[in-house]
Amino acid sequence: MPSDDALNYPSLLMREGFIIKVNQSIIKRNMKKFLFFLTSLLVGTGLFFWVLKEVGWQEIKNAFFIFTLWQGMIILILTVAKTITATWKWKVILRTEGVNVPFFSLLESYLAGFSIMYFFPTAFFGGEIFQSYILKKKYSVPWSKGIASSISDQILDWTTNLIVIFLGMTLFLFKMSLFPKKIAIICFIIFPLSLLGISYFYFKAFKKESIIGFLFKRFSRNIQNVEALEIEKEIFSFFNFKKGSFWKGIFIGFIEEIFFLLRIWVLINFFGRDINLLSAVSILGFSYLAMMIPIPAVLGVHEGLQTFAFNALKLGAGLGTAFALVIRGADTILALIGAFISFRVGSELLRKTLLKNEQKF
Predict the structure, then answer these.
(1) Contacting residues for 348 by C-beta, under 8 A, at least 6 apart
(2) For residue 261, with 0-12 CB atoms within 10 Å meaning exposed, 13-18 middle and 19 or more buried, which class applies?
(3) Lowest-confidence region among 18-27, 193-202, 211-220, 262-271
(4) Among residues 169, 144, 174, 134, which one has the least CA distance to residue 292?
């Protein structure tokens, strides 16, 4: 009589075949992401050096000539202040979900996620997933609450960012009679698509109609995904216009924008130029437009857009490039700190996991 293993052999082969196919699918998907990342990095690098060549090194050096180390420290302090405000906003979201994590621990998680989003923008939701992973492993925060809070934070960010972009571009158009074709594509195609996407989300959140459920019914054989629906439920729970926590999040989001505007105004004054609030809003709008393009550290894109914007505002193309480089420097310092935190936390969690498995064995 055949053994149980012999009887189950065909089903085992089918199961192993399925696992192999899944693994192959994952490898292919990751390879596509890596190629996309590599391509975007090469495009950004090429654009970066093209901008430097077009503007001219001498003009950029002239802009940097009066910039000092202590002024750079002030720009870094304002960048840190913005980061602290962003962490405060995230803490408000988590508290709404009944989760209380120490502020400085949350700041660590925020910086870790920021580093991934900054250096690897092609990995959509990469930073949010890592932030949620840290919260789950270190503070036992349920996965649905952690990922929902991170996504809610990003939605709030893009809500205020799109408002700034709209105001900035509107003010800028009054000063410009003609938009270059490439800039027009970014402003009048990418921006409306982003605005349409976030407007659709708010419409669904207001009516409490599931977006995830609709997508699964339309594009998947599975009628529903319980975990995804639970995450969506947590997000919709926060985006309730009747709740004070939602409006508090929006308020803190605008405080972030104030720190960004202050950083722009201070930096341009350090370069020896005067700027009014309306022009600062336009410059900030161009910074957010650059962030919409998935290139690592917005390399080349930020320099190109700011060079165009500063030249159009009669501030000088060289000053625009120098401005973008200083902002990049401050953001990169925080991103590197976040990368160090990611490595340290990741190593610690891996060590604990291996130790736990060893003890079980």
Answers:
(1) none
(2) middle
(3) 18-27
(4) 169
User: Using the 8-state DSSP alphabet, how is residue 122 labeled?
Assistant: T
Q: With 0.85 as the threshold, say if the pTM is over it.
A: no
Instruction: Answer for the pair 110, 86: CB distance below 8 angstroms, yes or no.
Output: yes
Identity at 301, one-letter amino acid code: V
The answer to whether the beta carbons of residues 240 and 246 sit under 8 Å apart is yes
Two tokens, residue 39:
């391509």
| 55, 321 contact by CB (below 8 A) | yes
Between residues 235 and 41, which one has the greater pLDDT?
A: 235
DSSP state of 67: -
Instruction: Kindly state the tokens that stand for 299.
Output: 């390399």
Cα 93 from Cα 152, distance rounded (Å) = 8
Find all residues with CB under 8 Å of 86, minimum gap 6, and list them. 110, 153, 157, 256
Amino acid at 342: S
Q: Does residue 148 come out as left (phi exceeding 0), alpha (psi in the -120 to 50 range) or beta?
A: alpha
The SS3 call for residue 192 is helix
Nearest in space to 87 (alpha carbons), one of 231, 332, 256 = 256
Distance CA 87, CA 103 (A): 8
Tens digits of residue pLDDT in 206-216:
888 888 776 66
> Distance between CA 55 and CA 317 in Å, rounded?
6
Q: Give the start-end residues of each E strand in the chain.
A: none
Structure tokens at 191: 């921006």
Please state, in angstroms and rounded to a whole number, the distance separating the CA atoms of residues 66 and 42.
32
Which of 318, 229, 340, 219 has the alpha carbon at shortest distance from 268?
A: 318
Core vs surface per residue 24-62: b (16+ CB within 10 A) or e: eeeeeeeeeeeeebeebbebbeebbeebbeebeeeebee
